[in-house]
Amino acid sequence: MHNIIKKTGLTLGAAILSFGAYTAQAADTIKVGVLHSLSGTMAISETTLKDTVLMMIEDQNAKGGLLGKKLEAVVVDPASNWPLFAEKTRELLAKDKVDVIFGCWTSVSRKSVLPVIEELNGLLFYPVQYEGEESSKNVFYTGAAPNQQAIPAVDYLMSEEGGSVKRWVLEGTDYVYPRTTNKILEQYLMSKGVAKADISISYTPFGHDKWSTRVAEIKKFGSAGKKTAVVSTINGDANVPFYKELGNQGISAEDIPVVAFSVGEEELSGFDTKPLVGHLAAWNYFMSAESDANDAFIKKWQKFIKDKKRVTNDPMEATYIGFKMWAQAVEKAGTTAVDAVRPAMYGITEPNLTGGIAVMNTNHHLTKPVLIGEIQEDGQFETVWATAGGVIGDAWTDFLPESANLVADWTAPIKCGNFNIKTGKCSGQNY
Amino acid sequence: MNILIRAICLVGVISLSALVQAQEIKSEDPQASEATLTEQRQATEAEFKSLLEDLNGKSFSAKSKAITALSLLSDDRTLPILKKMQDGELFYRKSDGVIVFVAEVEEGLELTDVISGESLGVVGSRDARKIRINNGVRQQLRSAVALLELASPDRKLRLESARNMIKSPDDSLREVLALASKKEKSDEVKHLLDVAIARIDIQSDDQEVRADAVEVLGTAVEPEAVAVLNSLAKKGEDGKYLESNVEIAKLAELKLKSINTKLGIFKFTENLMFGLSLGSILLLAAIGLAITFGVMGVINMAHGEMIMLGAYTTFAIQQLLPNHINVSLLLAVPAAFLVSGTAGVLIERIIIRHLYGRPLDTLLATFGISLILQQAVRMYRANNVPVVTPDWLSGFWQVNGALSITYNRIYILIFALFVLAALALLLKKTLVGLQMRAVTQNRAMANSMGIRSNWVDALTFGLGSGIAGIAGVALSQITNVGPNLGQSYIIDSFMVVVFGGVGNLLGTFFAAMSLGIVNKFLEPVTGAVIGKIIVLVFIILFIQWRPRGLFALKGRFAED
In terms of residue numbers, what domain contains A382? Predict the structure, then answer.
């Protein structure tokens, strides 16, 4: 109860404050739009990112703002409602006249925002790992593309250290991200000589919690004598019952490891992780990464959110990097005008929290390291494998015939998000 | 340590180094064998130490090698060390890399040397680090522990070990397994060991040995054994066996036929169990609604949130009693009933009683309540909360190699039946139940007999909500506890109640069970998404045919 009062008080206070700031100095601030769901099903994940942006803004203002102006957050709530994302974007760009937007989580919400942000020439930083096959002039993708998460994870499992996996279960929730990712992975595995009979693909609905049959099938599929692994693109909520059922049916990580792309520290904090130990996740960031920058970030975050146990996760790092890069680009361009900031972004570098340097490429994707971690009993990940250096995010995967010939490059002479190197043409469609 | 394990270890070492034939050693008299063993031990004390150091080696493969080597040494200290390592509880001192056991004490960590068993004093919690393991190492540890525990006096441990032995056949363990099988008294363990040996023998060059192995494999239903037979009986595109020895292939095919009949029966049983368990979950979720919607006719969209409140109560009680998971789960049942029941009575008194006879308004109002409750819980904890499952509820009952049933499903099935029986008793045998039924069937008449029907309404609604709360306790053990928990069950609940016949507990029971079973038999064929759609379409069609569901009742509903 105490918590509720405190939280309501805080939100109210923040609302009043930001409203006050808004009226008082509307003219001489740089406005940062925050487009994350604060209610509905996605609120669990997205609220954290809203708070991250607010923390970054507070931090930047403490350093004196940007171009001599203070930053000001304009927070809206698209309420996990995909069409509302487009409406709120229009509101942010046309009415509030924000200079940049940080937002979206699900791919479907990003797709809903795209036409609006391109029409009004806004700037969106998208911080979540996604299925690729996209490069918009007005969006910078700071999360992982498939070649920065899915492909390295599969490579690891195929290696001797990862268990020389020969048989694959691609298990996903039934929506665009898993379907596209699995299509790419299937092609990739077959190009590596895996027979079609050794790949089992299955989809379950959102929030699925009746896993007994499916897990029994996986168990059977995995006991055919070849080392088997599950590649899971199961969406957040369905994960707990899935892992519980795995544990109950006695499938441990040694027998059939599960590598997940949507399970991070934040999701694990809602789990009893004992039965999960040894299962894997592939990300570009783990809270357990040992670096001074990461320690400082975690400390700052826990202080900002006033909770010593709050965890950090990969999309937070992506938000952090995106924000830092945008701030640098604004300084470099000397203005917040989108047409000046966008070209200034290319080649900008920012140290990762895990070590190494992230680079923004001309296809609007980052160069980042890829880490594979095993889940530990305390809900953290232990990094068991990492790429030697950064991996360049590939907007269009080479493993699907329809996108193998496409490249994205927003600098001259190509200046296109989907340039076909065979025909030498740009489709003209921007997303 | 008993003789058997010494012999096993010895044989293991020797068969590995391939210096002496194992057969000879077995025939030696125990005295001589004992002597060799002691010699072996003395020679390995230094080696033991260096192998231990390797446990914390640089690469995971170095660790794996050290584990295998350790498991083949006869040393009493090995098993506890490897077991600790398997559980991720083996540490090393940061200052000098000495491998230690740790115990948490107030000032930090108390270290114990794993070699000498001496205490090394207390250090700060950051001065000792866990030895890192990955899945490969974990697998190695499992086989090593299984090998060492094959000699355990505990039959359960031996059974577990034998099962693990089947999973990873290893030539070098052939002799050890044969010896263990010979000494084994339990038929079940012996059978598993023989299957493990057969899996190794099938790789042999001697065709007679292979034929014998096929015979043994033919008696097993373990998936690993069936997989071997399948690969033996496999035919190429030209219709010929891929296996070079046609006799063996034919034998394997013959054996597979009888195995497949058995497997078919097991598969059917498994599906039936899955169906019954899904049915019991549906029953638990719907049974409260069968009262509020079925008996009272209130379309209660907040029913799912009553379930959610019950699940959160479970979490809250676990928070209060973090060290008594078992007790807290038992306590959660009455507590959840009270919390959800009270919430139900309040909702009925404050809102629903003003809306009787206006179903559309009730629907909207209760939908509003459900949103309010969800957001309220979200403000308490935005994330899903972790509810711990007690040990006796996790794990599975291995009926045989091909069939296993998870414990939580069995318990929930029993629990659901118990709740149903208790509710039926309450309605049929108590005064309150009598009044409830009277009010439902004819309100005016009940009123004139002196029953305060509005209080009975509140009680009935409270009862339905309270049972939803109990369902929440059960659901917290199998699904995630979060603000959206209720939403995912509300549709299913309505489906069950409508299908079963409004206002009928027996109908709810049959509806839940049949929907569960149909769903689970469809799922392997059609996949989860299509399966769900088919069931929904079926219910819609069924309702067209029999609008009152499986068991139509006479009562308030029968009148209009």
Answer: 147-286+372-392
